[in-house]
Amino acid sequence: MTARILVFAGSIRAHALSGITADAATRELALQGAEVTRISLADYPLPIFDQDLEREKGVPDNAVKLASLVASHDGFLIATPEYNASLPPLLKNAIDWISRVKQDSSGRAIRAFSGKPGAICSSSNGAFAGIRAANHLRAVLVHCQAEIVSAQCSVGRAQEAFDEAGNLTDEATSKKMATTCRALLEAASLVRQRRT
Fold first, then answer.
1. If phi over 0 gives left and psi between -120 and 50 gives alpha, with beta otherwise, what is residue 22?
2. How far is 45 from 110, CA to CA, in rounded Å?
3. This prediction's pTM
4. Residues 88-92, mean pLDDT to the nearest whole number
5. Closest by alpha carbon to 16, among 93, 96, 88?
6. What does DSSP say about strands 147-155 and 117-123: parallel, antiparallel, or unpaired?
7. Measured on CA atoms in the order 167, 170, 173, 178, is the torsion positive or negative?
């Protein structure tokens, strides 16, 4: 059966390089046979994580929706930009809220990231290619008990790395993208087989 993969970027800025990277990953995953759902965090606005707010009003509906999306797919891929040598607050906030969701909208128990295969891509205008952000993101997701594949695709000098159609122009980076997507699909397919 076809693995279902959720893809999103850590930035919602128009023409964000992480968004272009997420789009490239979406195409590669589809090319390798995945059923891909590409979302934007802009469609799921969330307040800054605050335990007092959580205690007073509960977990926001959009956090439950995001957690349910992660849980309903066989794996996920996040493309992160790098802000001050780390992951952006928008992405960290979304992950923090998702990690607080204990049940979906129908009341079924849910731990969205637990045991879920994931993959990381990063991008930046510099030569470091967002690797520091990717490393921090990996640590956060592993703490949330996600099973992150070791392969990752980091796109350096990303403002020059894509053609007008959004395809990676560097062969080595394109191969890293293909390898990352293949590793994720293999891990997600194993999880899917165990569930069926």
1. alpha
2. 21
3. 0.96
4. 98
5. 88
6. parallel
7. positive
